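Retro notes
What went well: the complex prediction finally ran end to end.
Inputs used:
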Amino acid sequence: MLRCQILIRLITLLSLFSAGMMTSSSAQPLQEIKPIQIGILDWQHTVDFQKHWLPTLHGLQSALPHYRIELLPLNWQEMDLALQTLALDFVITNPGHYVELSTRHALAPLASLQHFHAGLPLHQVSSVLLTRADRNDLQTLYDLKDQRIGAVAAEAFGGYQLLLDELELAGIERSSWEKQVEFLGFPMQALISKLLAGELDAVVVRSCLPELMEEQGLLYLSDVKVIAAKSVDHYACMTSTPIYPGWPFARTLRADPIVTRQVARALMAAEPAVFGDSYSDWLPPASYQSVYALFERLRLGPYAAFPRNPISAWLYEYRFYLIFACGLVLLSFLHQIRSEYLVRQRTLALEQETQARLQAQQDLALRQREVEHLSRVTLMGELTAGLAHELNQPLTAIHNFAQGCLRYYDKEDEILLKQRQALRETTQQIVQQADHAGELIRQLRRFMRKEDGVTQCVSLCRLVEEAYALSQSALSAQEVKVDWERPDAPDSLQVNLHPTQGLQILLNLLSNALEAVVKQPIEQRQLRFEVYQQGQEAVFICSDQGPDWPIEHEAQMFEPFYTTKSQGMGLGLSLSRSLAERQGGRLTLTRSKGWTHATLFLPLTAVAFEEKA
Amino acid sequence: MKSTPSPVIWVLDDEPIVRQSLRWLLESIDLQVRDFARAQTFLEALEDENPACVLLDIRMPDMSGLEVQQLLQTRMPHLPVIFMTGHGDIAMAVRAMRAGAWNFFEKPFRDQELLESVQGALRWQEEQLEQKQNQQSFLRCLQTLTPREQEVFDALITGKTTKQCAAELGISTKTVDVHRFHLMQKLGVDSIATLIRRALSLGYLKER
């Protein structure tokens, strides 16, 4: 909408001026007179625009008689639009605007304006920072902190932006500075009035303005002083910034090369235009590089789009993606850490668990061995009465033999000589009996010892024999009769087991059977042992005529601490079963026809089995 | 008595080694030993001649020591029985002693105690035998008394005086004295007190 309005105004202007020009030069043939349209920046709508600019360009009109020079006062937007629509041949504008336009439009400077007024170089651009002369505290840019500063507008090139560049070069933070600046608008003279009135501590104004005001009698330069003054060679005004070149005269894309050449020549050849104290003329184009550099520093005009810090700008532009990506990375990192932590925790837990399980297993094995041992001790206790008797026999015999011998030794030599052979035989008997007792003790010890499970190949019959021998006295003490028909080849049933544990199982069974039959009248106190082969197993059955028990209690009987005895731990059967199972065998308890059968199955050794086969 | 045959010790135990060692021990003090493993053979072989003593094991396979003791009690009440056991059992010991056992030993026993006990038993048996012989001779002597002397004897052992006897029998005290003198001579006693003791030991008064 705005664009349209500007366009309409531009067209109106153009047509108006064309009409004006036409009337002024109607004497010449129409077809020969071509217009040269020159756009001039005039954002303040200068009242005497034509009067102001025509003298400067009067040499141009006279050098190009076949062309009609048209001056168009345009503001920034109008200028931009006119260049876009190729409505202009040449452009005269301030250096800042020129730099900005040059990035969008093909412009080339032909000349730079030089304008002196009362010896002051008004064509050149710079800023001066003023304060009252009595403000001794303000010397450099750094002293301006927290001071009230006045300026015309933020966009003003000579009036503000140049100083901003100085501040940045001095390393002063732009954002903090901007807070203390008041933009009061044009005219600039008002700023100086306010400064002098004490309403402001410092003001930014165009260079040469104070000198100009003094010349006009509006200001005494002694009332003010410059902050951060710079001295520039051949520059007559006070300044706080570097000096930038004056207004350029630039050609556009539309300008005809021949005309351009003629224009350039005319500009260079023209006499300076003089009015009163001031004069102006055109010089060959100055370098606008310093303006470009300034704009680049200030990120103005063509550089506005360029970030000050490309990396940070890029980062800023893609900040959402970056934040997202960072978030992802962070998340995955956290996930990594968490999973690492979890893995470590789990590993630790597993290690501890393994440790605990190992410990538990060791404890269990230890406990098992203790229980086994305890059970053996208990079993021994049950058999002790018998064993005492067993030991008594040889001890009594030894005692009697020895005492008899002593008595013989007290007799006369004659009798002693006769008894010599008998004495010798008796002594032999003593040795035999001592050996017998010793063997008994050894057997006992072997049984009681806490042994580790080293399995051996043993004959089941021999083992039964040993268990029977150990319990025989206990059995006979209770007048229990044992019916055992030993097999023909007792060594044929070889089983692989730990002898002590095997013995323990058998003794347990015998002890249980004994306990069972003791409850019965003497004629029923009978046990029956059977050993035979069944398939790949050796079977031992210990049967007794003990009291009846409900068959459904079988499982219960094998449970630890289940006991029917007054002096028992209830470990015998459960332990025997676990021992049997550890040897690869089984243990069952059945009842039939008034007999209880405890049956032990043990796998035959491969050798024994092969031999049989 | 010393001329009597040497005493016999009967040993009954099922353990051969115990028998063997006992034999050795007992023979070392010049005792005759006859040992048996089974009660049956022992009972068959048992003779009632010599001074003897039985060493019995309480626990034996076919017949227990206590059963053997019971049999012996009826057959030969004067035969001392000494028990041996490997199982110290007070109840059993009490039973055995009540049934008239001479002693009760727990294996292993001290040989000295066993031997002393054996010898004590033998001595006791000798005394028993001696006493038995005395009684038998006393009884034989009693049978040699005349009927009148018998009457006087019966009266005297109930503690009656000469006068009471005379009054009871209707004879003079003098005649009683003569009968008394004769019967004391026949019975071989030198005082009324001895007479009464002998009669008592025979259980004579109880019969009355």
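What we learned: Chain B touches chain A through 20 residues (CB under 8 Å).
What to try next: split runs per interface for comparison.
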